[in-house]
């Protein structure tokens, strides 16, 4: 199974997961052109996708979805409320034809969805969206997950992230940068709230709960452009791991920041 971040950040998110015969995306929050370019770089055509799994309806997760879906009739998965919000957000384009709503496939949290060789498990997260989920994807004995846009984590989240081979986890903001930054007060409250985003510190604490010998790759994702930067996210997460109640250090794992404007390395598990 291959795991690649095509883009991850507050400006757009799109993650590829696939096996030899099955290819899916988690979110389509970048332009159709960038989605197709990213797929081409890993040797996959847009027409070869078997599904796109949407975490929630915010624009940085569905921006390129309408154009892509009109071009390639790929099933689009998400919770019922998310798909309804997506259908309202994507206005039909007269030049491209009506949006193919028959492609929408509802999923339920904690109910597995089988797509070719992949088994996808949605699980609930707390975010200010209609009905958001994160996804764990399994192929044989290998499993990866994409978990972003979470205001906080609890034992339920931890349980769904145990035993992974690779992970992209939100490390959205530095709390001090956010508090001192130019955002209006209501937006700061939203981001820091239980339905907002995970901070660098919270990301490190969550990682400390799920580290194990078989975890091959950790991507720090969904970084804020205004309230974070890559070196700070990395160093803060590493410090939290060092201070965590676990037998590991950050140097025991391959940790990298998933860029907003560049593809990550291809991780094979």
Compose a concise summary of this entry.
The protein has 9 helices and 14 strands. With 269 residues, the chain is an alpha/beta fold.
Q: Could you explain how this protein is built, in words?
A:
By secondary structure, this protein is α/β, with parallel strands linked by helices. It is 28% helix and 24% strand. The chain contains 9 helices and 14 strands. The protein has a 7-stranded mixed beta sheet. Strand 10, helix 5 and strand 11 form a beta-alpha-beta unit. Helix 8 crosses helix 9. The radius of gyration is 17 Å and the shape is globular.
Which sequence of SSEs, written as H and E, runs from N to C?
EEEHEHHEHEEEEEHEHHHEHEE
Strand order of the largest sheet: 6-5-4-3-2-1-14
Instruction: Summarize the amount of helix as a percent range.
Output: 25-40%
- Note the beta-strand portion: 15-25%
Task: List the uncertain runs.
Answer: 93-98
> What is the makeup of the main sheet?
7 strands, mixed
Between the first and last Cα atoms, what is the distance in angstroms? 5 Å
Structure classification: alpha/beta
Tertiary shape? globular
Rounded mean pLDDT score = 94
List keywords for this structure.
269 residues; alpha/beta; 7-stranded mixed sheet; 9 helices; 28% helix
């Amino acid at each position: 199974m291959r795991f690649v971040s095509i883009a991850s950040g507050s400006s757009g998110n799109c993650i590829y997961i696939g096996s030899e015969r099955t290819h899916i995306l988690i979110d389509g929050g970048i332009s159709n052109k960038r989605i197709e370019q990213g797929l081409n770089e890993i040797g996959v055509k847009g027409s070869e996708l078997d599904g796109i799994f949407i975490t929630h309806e915010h624009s940085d997760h569905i921006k390129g979805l309408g154009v892509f879906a009109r071009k390639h009739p790929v099933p689009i998965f998400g919770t019922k409320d998310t798909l309804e919000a997506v259908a309202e957000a994507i206005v039909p384009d007269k030049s491209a034809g009506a949006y193919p709503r028959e492609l929408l496939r509802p999923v339920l949290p904690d109910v597995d969805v089988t797509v070719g060789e992949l088994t996808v498990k949605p699980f609930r997260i707390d975010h200010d969206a209609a009905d958001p989920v994160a996804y764990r994807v399994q192929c044989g004995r290998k499993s990866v997950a994409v978990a972003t846009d979470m205001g906080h984590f609890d034992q339920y989240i931890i349980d769904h992230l145990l035993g992974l081979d690779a992970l992209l986890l939100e490390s959205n903001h530095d709390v001090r940068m956010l508090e001192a930054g130019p955002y209006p007060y209501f937006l700061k409250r939203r981001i820091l709230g239980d339905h907002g985003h995970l901070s660098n510190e919270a990301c490190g604490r969550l990682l400390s709960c799920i580290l194990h010998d078989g975890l091959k790759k950790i991507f720090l994702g969904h970084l804020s452009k205004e309230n974070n930067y890559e070196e700070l996210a990395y160093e803060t997460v590493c410090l939290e791991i060092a201070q965590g109640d676990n037998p590991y250090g950050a140097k025991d794992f391959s940790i990298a920041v998933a860029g907003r404007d560049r593809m990550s390395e291809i991780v094979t598990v």
